[in-house]
Amino acid sequence: RTVLRERAFAAMERAYAPYSSFRVGAALLATDGSVVEGCNVENAAFPAGICAERSAVAAAVARGNRGFDAIVVATEAEEPTPPCGMCRQVLEEFSPHMLVIAVTRGGREATWTLDALLPQAFTPQSLSRQ
Ligand code: THU
C-alpha cells in the first residue's frame, strides 16, 4: 500500500498541467498485483486534456489489465480530492467495488468504495436491460 502511494506521487511529478497547475497522479492496483500509473495530461485545446485516473485506466487496459482492487490518487491540494464524475464512470466499467484512496502531500487521506462514489451507476449490464 505504501508502494501505491509512492507511485501515485511519482506519477504526479510527471503530470502535464501547465494550464491549471493542478497536478494529479494515479496508481492503479490491478488484480494480478501489478501497479499502473497515470497522470493528468492537459492540452492547449482545454477539453482535450485527460485526468490522471482515466490515463491510468487506459495504460492498464493497454497492457492487459481489466480488473482493479484499488486506485490511489495523489494531489498537492490541502484536502484529499475524489475523482471527477467521468473518471468514476470509467472506473465503474471495470471494477465497481474497487477502493478509491485520495492522498495529499501533507499525509491526509480519504478512502471510499467506488459503489459509494457512483451509486445507481450505468453499467455494461444496463445496455442489455430493455
Ligand atoms: N484532474 C484529474 O486528473 N483528476 C481528478 O480527479 C480531478 C481533476 C485534473 C484535470 C485537470 O487537468 C486538472 O486536474 C484540473 O481540473
Helix and strand topology:
Elements: H1 2-13, E1 24-30, E2 35-39, H2 52-62, E3 68-75, H3 85-94, E4 99-104, E5 109-113, H4 114-117
Parallel strand pairs: 3-4
Antiparallel strand pairs: 1-2, 1-3, 4-5
Tetrahydrodeoxyuridine is lined by residues 17, 20, 22, 24, 40, 42, 49, 51-53, 73, 81, 83-84, 87.
Oligomerization category of the chains in this entry: single chain
Order of helices and strands: HEEHEHEEH
Beta content comes to 15-25%
How many β-strand runs?
5
Number of helices, where a helix is a run of at least 4 consecutive DSSP H or I residues: 4
Quick structural overview:
The protein has 130 residues and is an alpha+beta fold.
Could you list some keywords that capture this structure?
130 residues; alpha+beta; 5-stranded mixed beta sheet; 4 helices; 28% helix; binds tetrahydrodeoxyuridine
Describe this structure in words.
- There is one protein chain.
- With 130 residues, the chain is α+β, with helices and mostly antiparallel strands.
- It has helices at residues 2-13, 52-62, 85-94, 114-117; strands spanning 24-30, 35-39, 68-75, 99-104, 109-113.
- It has a five-stranded mixed sheet with strand order 2-1-3-4-5.
- It is globular.
- The N and C termini lie far apart (41 Å).
